[in-house]
Amino acid sequence: QVQLVESGGGLVQAGGSLRLSCAAAGHTFTRYAMGWFRQAPGKEREFVASITPSGGIIYYADSVKGRFTISRDNAKNTVYLQMNSLKPEDTAIYYCAASSALIQLDRRIGYNYWGQGTQVTVSS
């Protein structure tokens, strides 16, 4: 079992920045690829970014490429999502997820464990 707790969400103006954190507890953090997903009101949960256990392979959704950066600190059991140049359409609940299978990292089905989410609101 892996417990994931997100933090760092909030209200920001368009063009601003936020950094989300996801702290993991339980099984060995370095066994898991980590991902960020988001869900806006009335929409499906969608992939944002993923990172493999060593941090060597990273994927981003096209909608956030060049603006968001995923990283992890295995010594702190934490994964981060740095979000720059935020847009109103980035408004959503952001979820952290852990994957032991290390496949289909751009899909919800690829993940075993999920956090409770943190709200990000970008005002225009």
Please describe the structure with a list of short key phrases separated by commas or semicolons.
mainly beta, seven-stranded mixed sheet, 11 strands, four-stranded antiparallel sheet, 124 residues
Short description:
This protein is mainly β and 124 residues long. The chain has strands at residues 2-7, 10-13, 18-26, 33-39, 46-51, 58-60, 68-73, 78-83, 92-99, 113-114, 118-123.
Task: Give a description of the structure.
By secondary structure, the chain is mainly β. It contains no helices and 11 strands. Strand 4 (33-39) and strand 5 (46-51) form a beta hairpin.
The profile of the biggest β sheet is:
7 strands, mixed
Query: What is the approximate shape?
Result: globular
Amount of beta strand: over 45%
Radius of gyration: 13 Å
Query: How many individual β-strands?
Result: 11
Write the layout of secondary structure elements.
Layout: E1 2-7, E2 10-13, E3 18-26, E4 33-39, E5 46-51, E6 58-60, E7 68-73, E8 78-83, E9 92-99, E10 113-114, E11 118-123
Parallel strand pairs: 2-11
Antiparallel strand pairs: 1-3, 3-8, 4-5, 4-9, 5-6, 7-8, 9-10, 9-11
